[in-house]
Amino acid sequence: MGRVVVEVMPKPEILDPQGKAVLGALPRLGFAGITEVRQGRRFELEVDGEVTAEVLDLVQRAAETLLSNPVIEDVVRVAAIEDEGAAPLPAAAEGPA
Amino acid sequence: MGRVVVEVMPKPEILDPQGKAVLGALPRLGFAGITEVRQGRRFELEVDGEVTAEVLDLVQRAAETLLSNPVIEDVVRVAAIEDEGAAPLPAAAEGPA
C-alpha cells in the first residue's frame, strides 16, 4: 500500500482571507517577523499497491480536476510518501510552491 | 526573505468528512485504486530575513498553537522552502505524516 501527498495553494493573484486572518493573529499571540501567510490544502491518499509513475499520473489528474479548483488554486506538489517510519520529519527543502 | 511551509493533518483517530467526500467522488470521476483520502492544511509563511533555526522554532510554536488545533490535528511538517525557482516540482519523497 502506497501513499501519495497532494498539495494545493491559492493562486498568487487570489485573495486568501484565511491566510490574512492568520497573519493578523500572529503578532497578537507574540509571533513576530512573519510578513505573509497563505493557506492551502494538503491531501494524503492511500493507493492499492506501489506508487508507480502511472499512479502518480492518475493522482496528478485527480488533483487537477477534483482535489483543486483550477480557477483559483494551483497544484504545487504531487509526490510519493516513501518513509513510513515514526521518526520526526526532517526540515527538508522542497521546490517552489 | 525566507519562506517556510507548515502542514497539518487531522489525527488518525479523528473522522475526516472532507476526505471521505473526496474518496467517494474519486470512482465516480473515473479515478480507481485509491483506498483512503485524508484532507489537511498547508500554510506558506514568508519571514523577514533568512530561515534560521530560531525562525523554524518560532514557526513550529506558531504551528502548534495557532495554525493547528492540537486536539484534532497533528503538525506533520515545518520546513524551509529553499528553492524559489520556477521549475516544476520534483516528485520528492518526504517523511511520515
From TrEMBL, chains A, B:
Substrates-to-products reaction catalysed: N(2)-formyl-N(1)-(5-phospho-beta-D-ribosyl)glycinamide + L-glutamine + ATP + H2O = 2-formamido-N(1)-(5-O-phospho-beta-D-ribosyl)acetamidine + L-glutamate + ADP + phosphate + H(+)
Name of the molecule in the record: Phosphoribosylformylglycinamidine synthase subunit PurS
Gene coding for it: purS
GO molecular function, one term: ATP binding
GO cellular component entries: cytoplasm
GO terms classed as biological process: 'de novo' IMP biosynthetic process
Ranges that cross the membrane: none
Family, as annotated: Belongs to the PurS family.
ATP-binding found in the keyword field: yes
Keyword hit for Electron transport: no
PANTHER family found in the cross-reference section: PHOSPHORIBOSYLFORMYLGLYCINAMIDINE SYNTHASE SUBUNIT PURS (PTHR34696:SF1)
Keywords: ATP-binding, Cytoplasm, Ligase, Nucleotide-binding, Purine biosynthesis
Domain of life: Bacteria
Gene3D superfamilies reported for this sequence: Phosphoribosylformylglycinamidine synthase subunit PurS
Quaternary assembly: Part of the FGAM synthase complex composed of 1 PurL, 1 PurQ and 2 PurS subunits.
SUPFAM superfamilies membership: PurS-like
NCBIfam families linked: phosphoribosylformylglycinamidine synthase subunit PurS, PRK05974.1
Role played: Part of the phosphoribosylformylglycinamidine synthase complex involved in the purines biosynthetic pathway. Catalyzes the ATP-dependent conversion of formylglycinamide ribonucleotide (FGAR) and glutamine to yield formylglycinamidine ribonucleotide (FGAM) and glutamate. The FGAM synthase complex is composed of three subunits. PurQ produces an ammonia molecule by converting glutamine to glutamate. PurL transfers the ammonia molecule to FGAR to form FGAM in an ATP-dependent manner.
One protein family per Pfam: PurS
Enzyme class: ligase
Pathway the protein takes part in: Purine metabolism; IMP biosynthesis via de novo pathway; 5-amino-1-(5-phospho-D-ribosyl)imidazole from N(2)-formyl-N(1)-(5-phospho-D-ribosyl)glycinamide: step 1/2
Protein location: Cytoplasm
InterPro entries: PurS, PurS-like_sf
EC number: 6.3.5.3
